[in-house]
Structure formats: C-alpha cells, structure tokens
C-alpha cells in the first residue's frame, strides 16, 4: 500500500498592517494607477510586511514554526515604523515591482534575522538573501510608457504603525489572485 503524502501548505511569516494604514496605501495606489495605467495595484486586504517566505510546509513543520514565533515574540519588543518613500525592483527605469519603504529598517532587520537563525537551525529556511524591508503595493506586467510619472510620488509617506505581532499565513494561489489566511498570530513583548 502506498504511503499517503502529507498535505503541503504554502506559507509565509509576515507582519499585518492596521486598517488605517491599508486605507492610506489604497488611496496612494489609486493616485498611482491614475498616473501610470500599467500598474496593477496589490489587493489591499493582502498587504503585509513579509519577513520570510517559507514555501510548501507540512503541518508538523508549521507547528515548529509556530513555536519559533512564540519564542521570538516573548523576547522581541514591539516598535514603531514609518511607511514612506516609493521604490522599484529591479530599477526605476524598468520597474516590475512597486514598493513602499519602511523606516527605520534596523528593528525589522533584527527581528527577521532572529527568526531566520531559528528557522535555519531547524532546517526550515531555504532563502537566505539579504532582507530589505518593504511593502509591495503593485506590479507591472509591462514596463510603463512613462516611468518618470513615478517621480512625483517617490517621497510619498503613508503613515506609521506599531509592529506588535507576527502572523504565519497560508497562501493559496487562485486565478483571481493569492488568498492569504492567518494560521497563527503571536504578539511581541511590550516595551518597558
């Protein structure tokens, strides 16, 4: 009899955004879409600050990741960040991904690095590229006819928020886009 294969769940670790910040980003996306019709804005309900893409994982692996989240949440204190300054990957003249920066990046980099060390130690991390905190707010399927239309938006700010929780999300790819479902939420320690 053939062994049953465990269900694999596509997952990632991220920081959720508060509703007020989502709405501010949505207003910016509308203005950007008006100036650059080739932009495909990211779905507002899917906006999050990714810490680690985990790929396909078993239930046992997700349970271990949840334990790592709890341990990290007990040690790391919450902090505030600003969401501002547009950027593009790979470059402004030929953008494929449009993102907003996060300042200061150091607390996020430290949080991501601590999670990375724990995940790597348990063989649960495949991607070790340098972490650059950012919020993807849109994509370009084709290069915009007028990439300079981004210039008036480059120093755009959308507000600030308190990074006070980690979320393990399941990501299902559908014809109408990705659907992200929280599997585990863990709060960060309160400062002071």
What does this structure look like?
This protein is α+β, with helices and mostly antiparallel strands. The chain has a single domain (11-187), classed as Cyclic phosphodiesterase (Cyclic Phosphodiesterase, Chain: A, Alpha-Beta Complex). Helices cover 26% and strands 41% of the residues. The protein is built from 3 helices and 9 strands; from the N terminus they run βαββαββαββββ. The chain has helices at 19-35, 59-75, 106-121; strands at residues 9-16, 39-41, 48-57, 79-91, 94-103, 134-140, 157-163, 165-174, 177-187. The chain has a 5-stranded antiparallel sheet, with helices on one face. A 4-stranded antiparallel sheet has the order 3-1-8-9. Helix 2 packs across helix 3 (106-121). The longest helix has 17 residues, at 19-35. It is globular and about 50 Å long. The N and C termini lie far apart (58 Å). The mean pLDDT is 92.
């Amino acid at each position: 009899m053939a062994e049953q294969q465990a269900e694999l769940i596509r997952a990632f670790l991220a920081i959720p955004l508060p509703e007020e910040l989502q709405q501010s980003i949505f207003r910016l996306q509308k203005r950007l879409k008006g100036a650059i019709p080739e932009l495909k804005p990211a779905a507002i309900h899917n906006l999050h600050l990714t810490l680690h893409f985990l790929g396909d994982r078993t239930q046992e692996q997700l349970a271990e990741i949840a334990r790592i989240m709890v341990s990290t949440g007990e040690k790391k204190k919450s902090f505030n960040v600003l969401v501002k300054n547009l950027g593009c990957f790979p470059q402004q003249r030929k953008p494929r991904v449009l993102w907003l920066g996060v300042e200061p990046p150091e607390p996020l980099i430290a949080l991501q690095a601590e999670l990375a060390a724990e995940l790597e130690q348990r063989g649960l991390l495949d991607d070790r590229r340098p972490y650059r905190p950012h919020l993807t707010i849109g994509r370009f399927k084709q290069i915009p006819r007028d990439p300079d239309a981004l210039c008036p938006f480059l120093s755009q700010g959308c507000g600030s928020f308190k990074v006070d929780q980690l979320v393990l999300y399941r990501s299902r790819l559908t014809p109408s886009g990705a659907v992200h479902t929280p599997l585990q939420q863990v709060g960060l320690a309160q400062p002071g």
